Amino acid sequence: MAEYIESLERLAEQFARLEGVGKKSAMRMAFSVLELERDDVESFAKALLDAKEKIHLCPICQNLTDREQCFVCEDPQRDRSTICVVSDPKTMLAMEKVREYRGVYHVLHGVISPMNGVTPDKLKIKELLARVGEGNVEEIIVATDPTVEGEATALYLAKLLRPLGVRVTRLAYGVPVGADLEYADEVTLCRALEGRRDV
Amino acid sequence: MAEYIESLERLAEQFARLEGVGKKSAMRMAFSVLELERDDVESFAKALLDAKEKIHLCPICQNLTDREQCFVCEDPQRDRSTICVVSDPKTMLAMEKVREYRGVYHVLHGVISPMNGVTPDKLKIKELLARVGEGNVEEIIVATDPTVEGEATALYLAKLLRPLGVRVTRLAYGVPVGADLEYADEVTLCRALEGRRDV
Hints:
2 copies of one chain form a homodimer. Chain A is α/β, with parallel strands linked by helices and about 200 residues long. Chain A contains 7 helices and 7 strands, in the order H-H-H-E-E-E-H-E-H-E-H-E-H-E. The model of chain A has no long low-confidence stretch (mean pLDDT about 90).
């Protein structure tokens, strides 16, 4: 298609870089951009650059944020003695939607998966140990996905953390085994949170 | 989600403006942008602005182009005595993929649909009449979708054009009735082209 309308083709290629966007959808989106007003396309370009420039990791929990600390860490009402460990920011947002959990979070940015080259040192585990080392942490809820890698990561963390004197728990199997936490419904997540158990 | 990560949310809103992109997909794409390199995000923003700035309508056939004329109109090899009329640029690209048609095109930018407020004056029909008025046009192939609106548009054009002494044809019903031409396979489009008939 490149010989046809070059700048349209180049735009479609950019959309196709995004996760889950195929060639056909990318071309449809590129056409769709042409139907937007010029101002709207400028806002779109600005939003892209802004997001990339402003969003960084929260220095405490490693969640994504565009402020100094993330919205949970900066909230003085949250209970800092309980840390919920999640694999990624999307799962953390899913947990927040439950509106039941009042503790704080820690985002690992992945799960241990030697097959894919993800060893523990690639995850934000050092940062978690440092937080626990500062004291005042009583419980770590490991909310990694209920998959083989998620379970292995939970066991690995339990082994590291229990000697430090913290209670390590895992979400109850209210969440269907093998599923992706990001898509769990709020009631299921809530049940899973209530029934959490020691690892 | 706006209270969470504002610049991420704003980016997701931009993706959600595009045709066929829901809220969940838009958020997934926004997260995906954060995983791109900074340079790639800059290229993405530039591609958006470039496409909007450079792409305009071909002054002859009203197709999208980022050059003076579209790639068909600027090709001296194309047969200017046959004009294939399509509803939109995507259908025109689908026709081009057949690599069978050697004439030129005319893009209406819609089909007549009074229910949706699309009256003939909203389409590029004046421009088509002007081209026919210049003489040298022998045949108009009306390749609008085989739907009620597409058929109505074809009949309307036939009534306007036949008095001017041009042959007006319609793609053969090789294309399945009710379908969208953009997604027709190339063989079907090719058969439809070969079996075209007078309106």
